[in-house]
Structures are given as structure tokens and as C-alpha cells.
């Protein structure tokens, strides 16, 4: 009954709103099948790394004790799967259908670009954590990024199927300017190149300002506390300071709401797929 009332309220708020801001965290992509804690998918994609003692993709995030051949064997496979694999995901399609008649903008901490890959307008997208499709120098020696796909395809072409290591040292990605180490253009540390996302940020701020007097619904999906300042706290702050805004928080593990939002927020303690199915019912 508690869920029914919350869903009914969220559905009514959506109908009453002129604009919708979607704030999506890792839980949204996990609902689409890209779950960094998924041991079954990890075992299928990375049998050699299972033999090394790893069980899930999150264990390799920031892990620095691999050889270059192992490092790029893992990351080329991972990025090809996450960023350049299957596009259509039912949970993203359900969300797009839910907001199809609304003036919508998306802010996400995910770097898989599944929103535009599932029909959302890329001009209405802000990805402050970066994009796996771009590569940068780790120094960085220049304020440039390059397409990732050619780098990882060279690795995959010489990948040992048993050890999952890159067998040709010449295929190891290097900066085309200084010859140094590279990585995807994602926010790891202070070396992250922000330039590709400046225009996105400007469009996001303009969109928010342009609708300051209109009824805004913030739909937040799967945004927890790994990087709360990127999505979760930003959504709370925006609703708190927007006189006509409401927040629908969809989160199975972290559904709590700040008291100061009061009647301007409701929480659906469930996964994104279940919530969107319920919200989409007439």
C-alpha cells in the first residue's frame, strides 16, 4: 500500500509537470544489464581474470597491479562491451516512453551513453563524469581527446583468448602526442579533461534557468553514495531551491529523502525497471 500511494503521487506529479529533469546514477545502467557487481557476466567476459581471483568489474576500477598487457586486455573488452555493445535496453526505452511528451533534460554520472543510444536527445544530455568513447593522455600533455574505438580495436585484434592479454606491445594504447600513458576520458583525478563537457554544462544551466517559473519534476534513478555530488545531492539542491520543483527518487538501496524537501519529494524503494513499469501504467 505504501508503494501504491507513492507511485500514484509520482504519476500525478508527472502529469502536472511541464518539464522533466532525469538524474541517473549507476543503478539505472545496472537495471539495463550493465552492473559492475554482476559476477555472472564478469565470469562470462573475463574467465582469465576469474582465475586471477577477481569476481566483478568493480574490483578492477582503480586497480594498478596489472601489467600493460593485462590492463588493456581487460579495459578493451570492458569498454567494447559497455560502450559499443548492445544499444537498445528495455529500461531506457520505458523511461523514454514515460517522458515522451515532456520537455526533458538528462544528467547522468554514467559514462556508457545509453541515453542517446536509446533515443534521448544528445543535445539535452550532461555527462560530467565523461564518456568511454573518448581517450585522453594521462598527464595530460595536450587539452585534446581522441576516439577510443580505434585504440581498443587494435588491442582486441591481438588479444590472447586464453590469457586475455594483449600479445603485441605495439598495440598498447599510447598518447599520439607524447607517447605516454592514456586512458578513457572519464573522471579519475585532477588530470580529467573537462573541455568536451563544458558545452553540455552550459546547456544544462540554461535549460534549468529557462524553466525557473515552470513546474519541474526531477526523476532520479539509481543514484547512490559512490559519487553523491554528481547526481544525488545536485538533484536535492535543485529541488530545494526551485519553487515549483518536485523530486521522485527511485532507489532500491538508498531511498532516503532529506527532511527539508518535505512534501516536495517522494521515494520509490524499488529498482528502476519495476518503478518505470508501475509509473507507465494508465
Describe what this molecule looks like in 3D.
Helices cover 37% and strands 16% of the residues. It is an alpha/beta fold. The chain has one domain: Rossmann fold. The strands form two sheets. A six-stranded parallel β-sheet has the order 3-2-1-7-8-9, with helices on both faces. It has a three-stranded antiparallel β-sheet with strand order 5-4-6. α7 (114-117) links the parallel β2 and β3. α5 (68-83) crosses α8 (148-157) and α6 (90-98) packs parallel to α11. The relative contact order is 0.19.
Termini Cα gap? 18 Å
As laid out across the biggest beta sheet, the strand order is 3-2-1-7-8-9
Strand content: 15-25%
User: Architecture in CATH?
Assistant: 3-Layer(aba) Sandwich
The CATH superfamily title: TPP-binding domain
Overall average residue pLDDT = 96
Work out the helix count: 11
Query: How much helicity do the residues have?
Result: 25-40%
Structural class: alpha/beta
Number of strands: 9
Primary descriptors:
single chain; 282 residues; alpha/beta; Rossmann fold; 6-stranded parallel β-sheet; 3-stranded antiparallel β-sheet; 11 helices; 9 strands; 37% helix
Topology:
Elements: H1 2-16, E1 19-24, H2 26-31, H3 39-45, H4 47-51, H5 68-83, H6 90-98, E2 103-108, H7 114-117, E3 125-126, E4 130-137, E5 145-147, H8 148-157, E6 182-186, H9 198-210, E7 216-221, H10 232-241, E8 245-250, E9 265-268, H11 272-279
Helix pairs in contact: 5-8, 6-11
Amino acid at each position: 500500500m505504501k508503494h501504491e500511494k507513492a507511485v500514484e503521487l509520482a504519476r500525478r506529479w508527472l502529469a502536472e509537470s511541464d518539464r522533466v529533469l532525469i538524474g541517473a546514477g549507476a543503478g539505472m545502467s545496472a537495471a539495463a544489464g550493465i552492473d559492475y557487481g554482476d559476477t555472472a557476466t564478469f565470469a562470462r567476459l573475463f574467465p582469465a581474470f576469474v582465475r586471477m581471483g577477481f569476481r566483478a568489474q568493480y574490483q578492477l576500477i582503480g586497480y594498478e597491479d596489472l601489467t600493460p598487457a593485462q590492463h588493456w586486455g581487460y579495459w578493451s573488452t570492458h569498454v567494447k562491451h559497455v560502450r559499443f555493445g548492445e544499444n537498445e535496453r528495455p529500461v531506457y526505452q520505458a523511461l523514454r516512453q514515460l517522458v515522451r511528451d515532456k520537455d526533458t533534460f538528462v544528467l547522468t554520472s554514467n559514462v556508457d551513453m545509453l541515453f542517446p543510444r536509446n533515443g534521448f536527445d544528445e543535445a539535452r544530455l550532461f555527462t560530467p563524469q565523461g564518456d568511454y568513447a573518448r581517450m585522453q593522455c594521462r598527464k595530460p600533455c595536450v587539452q585534446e581527446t581522441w576516439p577510443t574505438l580505434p585504440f581498443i580495436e587494435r588491442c582486441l585484434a591481438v588479444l590472447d583468448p586464453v590469457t586475455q592479454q594483449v600479445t603485441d606491445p605495439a598495440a598498447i594504447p599510447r598518447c599520439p602526442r607524447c607517447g605516454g600513458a592514456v586512458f578513457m576520458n572519464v573522471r579519475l583525478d585532477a588530470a580529467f579533461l573537462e573541455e568536451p563537457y563544458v558545452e553540455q554544462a552550459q546547456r544544462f544551466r540554461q535549460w534549468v534557468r529557462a524553466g525557473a517559473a515552470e513546474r519541474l519534476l526531477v526523476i532520479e534513478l539509481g543514484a547512490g553514495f559512490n559519487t553523491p555530488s554528481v547526481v544525488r545531492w545536485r538533484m536535492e539542491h535543485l529541488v530545494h531551491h526551485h519553487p515549483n520543483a518536485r523530486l521522485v527518487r527511485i532507489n532500491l538501496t538508498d531511498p532516503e529523502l532529506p527532511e527539508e524537501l518535505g512534501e516536495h519529494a517522494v521515494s520509490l524503494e524499488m529498482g528502476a525497471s519495476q518503478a518505470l513499469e508501475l509509473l507507465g501504467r494508465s
